[in-house]
Each structure stands twice: as C-alpha cells, then as structure tokens.
Design brief:
alpha+beta, Butyryl-Coa Dehydrogenase, subunit A, domain 1, Butyryl-CoA Dehydrogenase, subunit A, domain 3, three-stranded antiparallel beta sheet, 363 residues
C-alpha cells in the first residue's frame, strides 16, 4: 500500500503486538485455530478491533489503508482473528441498516442468509459470541444481531472443515429474525454488492500477505539448507521454483495494493472499483496455486509436516481464495467485463479513470 509515516508507525506497533516466534504456534495449528481472547482484548485496548468504525460510534475512525496494514500484518504473523469480519463487514452492515452495536469491540461475524434460511461456511461462527444475520427475501434484506441465546433458539450451527483449521460453520435459521431492520430492494442490492467487494478485498489482502511470508520462508530455507555440499539455492531447479513463487506473489501484491488504494479513495464506489477488486482476487487466486505448490516443493518433506510453520501461511491462503467468490467467479467477472466493456478493463490495466460504472457483482 502507499507508504506513509503514519502507516509505517502503525505497522511497527502491530508487529510488536502480533510478533513472537511463529514456530511456537504448531500446537495451535494441529488443534485447529480457535479464537484468541487474550490477543483480541489487547488489540481492542489499542483500538484495532474497531479500526474503521467511526469515532462517534466508538471506533478508531481509520480507513482502508490502515485496515489493509492490520489485515496484512496479522496474516503475516499467523495471528488469525475475525478482524475483517467484525469491523469491515458485520459492524458496517449494522451501520447501514441503522442498527448501532452497543460495543463495537465485541467480536462479530456476518452471515448472508438465503431465502431458505441457509448460510454456508460462515467465518468464525460458533467460536465468537455474536453473528450479524442478513436474510434475503423477495428482494428485501432483513438485518439483525443474534447473540448466543437467540442463536441457540433460532438456528442450527454445523461446523465445516477447512484447510487451515480456521473456524467455519453452516447456519440454518429455524425461525424468522427477531427485531430485524428491513432494507428495501434497491438499498439491499447495493449493500450486498459492496459487502462482497469488502469481503473479497479483505481476503485478498490477507492472502497476499501470507504468500509473501511463504516466499520469504522459501528464500531463508533454500539459502540455509545445504544438500550435496552446497545450499539448495545454488541448484537451478530450486532457483526456478523460488523465482516463480516470488514473481507470482509480487503480482498478487501489486494488484491488491491497487485495489486498496482505490478503496481508500472511493470507498469501493468508484466506477472501476469492482474491476480492481476482481483483478486483485484473480491474481491472488492464481498466485496461491503457484506459491503454495512451489513453497512446499522447495521445503521438501519437512514443509509438509505439522512441526513446520509453512502451513500457517499456505493453508489459510488456500481457504481465503475461495471466500467471497472463488477464483473462477472473479475470472468470469473479468471475462464478462472484457467482453461487454473492453475499454473499461483496459483503463484499469493502464491506470486511467474508467468511463462507466461496473456491473453488479453480487454472488
């Protein structure tokens, strides 16, 4: 992201708070990644768990640039928390719906429920106390908070497996949402479109940071590891593996930075915002395939074990690239844009202002 003194200061603070020996987190990875209450409370005390919530609503009043630093640093430190779900998504939906949370520091997740009452693979559901449910019906959208008691009475929660062990669960509502704010069709459609973009960009930031960390670990390992009398990095085949991974990670990072800068400038309401998010997600998705494969090959057998920290970055990246739209979804979106509005896509490629609005991206 665009370097500023404030953001670099923020990065240093976050590295102090989130830092530590990554290799000490093997037990956490083996047991499944749960909710770290102590770390959440520390981040809350510093104002990071409600980073983009307006100050008058009890938050820190920051924007996308600061949020990207927070999400990137937490992913690079393998300190996984519902930072995006709670602040960027759930609390934002509540504000748009006119429902202001009592305490923005309470961890929340967001579940977009279909007319049949189902939401699939909701992040952190079952591991944190509150879910913001947004149920679609007849074009309108009903939004409310479900605390543990209401959730137990009105819904069934079924955990689903993930590559990384990060908590996910399916939600099945057994009753209507209580005391819901109902948004009419036009407002509901705009909210859902922006929700997809917000979630997709947040996941792109996290995955790109994880890929960068995996590449750094490849460089460190192949430089230090000696085989047949010389470092692995001296073998041409290994050099190609690491170089390809580094190139893909750099492309992913550049595309994500472009999308974050646009989000900071336009609030994801710009004429090219959806296309830039789609490009970032496409690049990140394809880069993940290359980086994960090459990183584990470069590390050899040790890189596939629970004892090695590489999986703390590669496995979450595999999960994140499939959330808020898959790589194929975003590739298809770009293809449709190229077919119907080729000039708009070219403007994004060369960095020129787009001339017309981007079509709806709701999934």
């Amino acid at each position: 992201m665009k370097p500023t003194t404030a953001n670099e200061d923020l990065r240093e603070v976050l590295r102090d708070v989130l830092g530590g020996d990554v290799t000490a987190r093997h037990d956490q990875a083996a047991a499944g990644i749960g909710f770290d209450t102590e770390l959440w409370e520390e981040l809350s005390r510093l104002g990071f768990t409600a980073l983009t919530t307006p100050e008058e609503r009890g938050g820190s009043g920051a924007g996308w640039l600061e949020a990207a630093v927070l999400l990137g640093e937490s992913a690079a430190a393998a300190r996984h928390l519902p930072l995006a779900e709670s602040d960027l998504l759930a609390q934002w939906v509540l504000r748009v719906a006119g429902r202001l949370p009592d305490d923005p520091r309470t961890p929340r997740t967001i579940a977009v429920v279909d007319p049949a009452g189902t939401a699939r693979a909701v992040p952190w559901l079952g591991s944190i106390p509150v879910v913001v449910a947004a149920r679609r019906a007849d074009g309108a959208l009903a939004v409310t908070e479900l605390a543990p008691g209401a959730l137990a009475e009105r819904a069934t929660v079924k955990p689903v497996p993930t590559n990384s062990g990060q908590p996910r669960a399916d939600l099945q509502l057994e009753a209507d949402l209580p005391n819901a704010a109902v948004l009419e069709a036009t407002t509901a459609g705009a909210l859902l479109d922006e929700l997809v973009l917000r979630g997709a960009l947040a996941r792109a930031v996290q995955a790109a940071a994880a890929l960068d960390k995996a590449v750094d670990m490849c460089v460190e390992h192949t430089t230090a590891r000696v085989q047949f009398g010389r470092p692995l990095a001296k073998f041409q085949a290994v050099q190609h593996l690491v170089a390809d991974a580094a190139a893909e990670a750099a492309l992913a990072r550049a595309s994500v930075e472009a999308a974050v800068l646009d989000a900071a400038e336009t609030g994801l309401a710009g004429s090219a915002s959806a296309t830039k998010v789609a490009a970032a997600r496409s690049c990140v998705g394809h880069a993940t395939s290359v980086v994960v494969r090459n990183a584990h090959q470069a590390h050899g057998a040790i890189g596939t074990t629970q004892e090695h920290p590489l999986q703390l970055f590669t496995l979450p990246a595999l999960d994140w690239r499939g959330e808020f739209g898959t790589t194929r979804d975003w590739d298809r979106f770009l293809g449709e844009t190229a077919r119907s509005r080729p000039r708009a896509l070219w403007d994004v490629v060369i960095g020129a202002p787009a001339a017309d609005a981007t079509p709806a991206v709701r999934r």
